[in-house]
From TrEMBL:
<dbReference type="GO" id="GO:0004360">
    <property type="term" value="F:glutamine-fructose-6-phosphate transaminase (isomerizing) activity"/>
</dbReference>
<dbReference type="GO" id="GO:0005975">
    <property type="term" value="P:carbohydrate metabolic process"/>
</dbReference>
<dbReference type="InterPro" id="IPR035490">
    <property type="entry name" value="GlmS/FrlB_SIS"/>
</dbReference>
<keyword id="KW-0963">Cytoplasm</keyword>
<comment type="function">
    <text>Catalyzes the first step in hexosamine metabolism, converting fructose-6P into glucosamine-6P using glutamine as a nitrogen source.</text>
</comment>
<keyword id="KW-0032">Aminotransferase</keyword>
<feature type="domain" description="SIS">
    <location>
        <begin position="459"/>
        <end position="600"/>
    </location>
</feature>
<dbReference type="GO" id="GO:0046349">
    <property type="term" value="P:amino sugar biosynthetic process"/>
</dbReference>
<keyword id="KW-0808">Transferase</keyword>
<feature type="domain" description="SIS">
    <location>
        <begin position="285"/>
        <end position="426"/>
    </location>
</feature>
<keyword id="KW-0315">Glutamine amidotransferase</keyword>
<dbReference type="GO" id="GO:0097367">
    <property type="term" value="F:carbohydrate derivative binding"/>
</dbReference>
<dbReference type="GO" id="GO:0006002">
    <property type="term" value="P:fructose 6-phosphate metabolic process"/>
</dbReference>
<dbReference type="InterPro" id="IPR035466">
    <property type="entry name" value="GlmS/AgaS_SIS"/>
</dbReference>
<feature type="domain" description="Glutamine amidotransferase type-2">
    <location>
        <begin position="2"/>
        <end position="222"/>
    </location>
</feature>
<dbReference type="InterPro" id="IPR047084">
    <property type="entry name" value="GFAT_N"/>
</dbReference>
<comment type="subunit">
    <text>Homodimer.</text>
</comment>
Length: 610
């Protein structure tokens, strides 16, 4: 979601700030800005630039700026509409400049206090409250000290924050602090840096530290110090800076989403590379500890939640282990009954999803000691905070609407189910070989599905005339229908809902008319005949069926029914193949409607606020 970059260097930091923001664009934002202190001018004035356009526009404004210290930000609006006044950095009395990720829950009470004390607000944000709060604490001090002012201010905040602060009177020091939102410190040869994401600073430094919950850091050009929540100076483990990932370039594709859809065969191959057997080693787990759990709790949000819903079928049918799936944003706010032998599995592309992290921490507070993360980012908070982990190796995903991250999550969860089944003696040696063979063949099967793109493009031309759509699936393919509906509404802005096909007659059938496209996931499995009956219910009401059917289903194109045939049914891995045409349908419909496919309105890639 929001992104922070801060720098103190021997040289002009403006280019570093702009490049850092460019690398954070994939997270989603609706405004951006930066502030620097110009040490070459009398009184070291704070200079700021902000825009509601893209980082490229901010870069054009930046050409005349100069400073050896600065902070920058991409904002995804929570408090206050997306406009320049609400964009970060926020400045208090020409003295304090601040950027912030997170949400301050008690900002209204603090705002009233500050207004009563004479502070004037120019934005609708909760962030401006922090800037004025730091200023108030700063001018109280007999000997002004920015670190002490920030330390006093964060004690008054309730909620989540990662902040970076500079002061016009201390032009060589930057203060950062975090609670609930990530912040790292990068250690370079010519300076020190802070960021919410190591990707922003790849190449600028060789080593880094992760700030822990409640930490505060003061950085200068040649040094940094960290204080914990209690105000004690502490040391944090210095780690290698993540290697800069592959160049994020479009190549021959029109959008990153299209590129990422077509990268799914490669992503699947990378995720299963070098896997020769099922077992706890896949999840960095000790075999003895692996024996201790007898049920699963899956926690996730959005697309990741739908991958967990698919996994419930695998875990209960393949591994025969009771499994519960919870929306992470709801789990921590209800009374649940913890069981000590539960394995808690959290699923997230970024590993920084605020709701999922909060749910994980809540589960641990309840006494759930066994935790596993399935994640695409090795350096993420989620990987660091769970006992075990599995990395999905999807590669950088820029498009806000997740595609390859989703399919690799499914692969990871399938491997989990197979590994538990093997532990329980439910998978023979021959069965394991067959499963591994199917996994290795999966990239080839994905290529065969991607070859259907021209037929799907022709369907998309029909969908642009629609305002609503229904998606149907049964059994393990119902969550795939949910994911298909989510993709269509995310990027085309067509209202879409998904239902288990058997539920049509219990209400949704009332919506079906000749103007209602009904997308149906039709694998050649044990529920096929039931699904065909549900399709007839739609046809009898004049609904228009768009069916993705496996070979051998004997579903034919006729009046009211359009069929695109997928390859043969792929057994337990069928959901991974069936989601791909739904991604392509959403993508090409959005292209035909000329929406901003990679950056759909109101959405962000990395959701780091509750």
């Amino acid at each position: 979601m929001c992104g922070i970059v801060g720098a103190v260097s021997k040289s002009n930091v403006v280019d570093t700030l702009i490049e850092g923001l460019r690398r954070l664009e994939y997270r989603g934002y609706d405004s951006c800005g930066f502030a620097v202190i110009d040490a070459t001018k009398t009184n070291h004035p704070l200079q700021r630039a902000r825009t509601t356009a893209r980082v490229a526009d901010l870069a054009k404004q930046a050409t005349e700026f100069n400073g050896h210290i600065g902070i920058a930000h991409t904002r995804w609006a929570t408090h206050g509409k997306p406009d320049t006044q609400n964009a970060h950095p926020h400045i208090s009395n020409d003295l304090i400049a601040l950027v912030h990720n997170g949400i301050i829950e008690n900002y209204e009470a603090l705002r009233e206090q500050l207004i009563a004390a004479g502070y004037q607000f120019s934005s609708e944000t909760d962030t401006e409250v922090i800037a004025h709060l730091v200023h108030r604490e700063y001018v109280k001090l007999a000997k002004p000290d920015l670190r002490e002012a920030v330390a006093a201010s964060i004690l008054q905040l309730k909620g989540a924050y990662a902040i970076a602060v500079i002061s016009q009177t201390e032009p060589k020091r930057l203060i950062g602090a975090r609670a609930g939102s990530p912040l790292i410190v990068a250690i370079g040869d010519d300076g020190h840096y802070v960021s919410s994401d190591a990707l922003a600073l790849a190449g600028k430094a060789q080593t880094m530290i992760y700030l822990e919950e409640g930490d505060l850091v003061a950085i200068s050009e040649g040094d940094f110090n960290v204080w914990d929540r209690g105000g004690k100076i502490v040391s944090r483990e210095i780690k290698p800076m993540p290697v800069q990932g592959e160049a994020v370039e479009l190549g021959p594709y029109q959008h990153f989403m299209q590129k990422e859809i077509f990268e799914q065969a490669r992503a699947a191959s990378d995720t299963i590379a070098h896997i020769s057997e099922f077992g706890p080693a896949l999840f960095a787990a000790d075999p003895k500890e692996w024996q201790a759990f007898d049920q699963i709790l899956l926690l996730a949000c959005g697309t990741s939640y739908y991958s967990a819903c698919v996994a419930k079928y695998w875990l209960e049918e393949i591994a025969r282990i009771p499994t519960q799936v919870e929306i992470a944003s709801e789990y921590r706010y209800r009374q649940s009954i913890p069981r000590s032998k539960t394995l808690v599995v959290v699923v997230s592309q970024s590993g920084e999803t605020a709701d999922t992290l909060a749910a994980l921490r809540h589960a641990k507070e309840l006494g759930h000691g066994m935790t596993l993360s399935i994640c695409n980012v090795a350096s993420s908070a989620m990987v660091r905070e769970t006992q075990w982990h599995f990395l999905t190796h999807a590669g950088t995903e820029v498009g806000v609407a997740s595609t390859k991250a989703f399919t690799t999550q499914l692969l990871a969860l399938y491997l989990l189910a197979c590994s538990i089944a093997k532990r329980k003696g439910l998978v023979s040696s021959d069965a394991e070989k067959k499963m591994l063979h199917d996994l290795r063949h999966l990239p080839q099967a994905i290529h065969a599905v991607l070859a259907l793109e021209p037929q799907i493009i022709s369907w998309s031309q029909l969908f642009i005339k629609c305002e609503n759509a229904l998606f149907l699936g049964r059994g393990i393919h119902f969550p795939i229908a949910l994911e298909g509906a989510l993709k269509l509404k995310e990027i085309s802005y067509i209202h879409a809902e998904a239902y288990p096909a058997g539920e049509l007659k219990h209400g949704p059938l009332a919506l079906v008319t000749e103007k209602m496209p009904v997308v149906t996931v039709a694998p050649n499995d044990t529920l096929l005949e039931k699904l065909k009956s549900n399709m007839q219910e739609v046809k009898a009401r004049g609904g228009q069926l768009f069916v993705f059917a496996d070979q051998g289903t004997h579903i034919k194109s006729e009046e009211g029914i359009r069929v695109i045939r997928l390859p043969e049914h792929y057994g337990d891995l069928s959901p991974i193949l069936h989601v791909i045409p739904l991604q392509l349908l959403a993508y090409h419909t959005a292209c035909a409607l000329e929406t901003d496919v990679d950056k759909p309105r109101n959405l962000a890639k990395s959701v780091t606020v509750e």
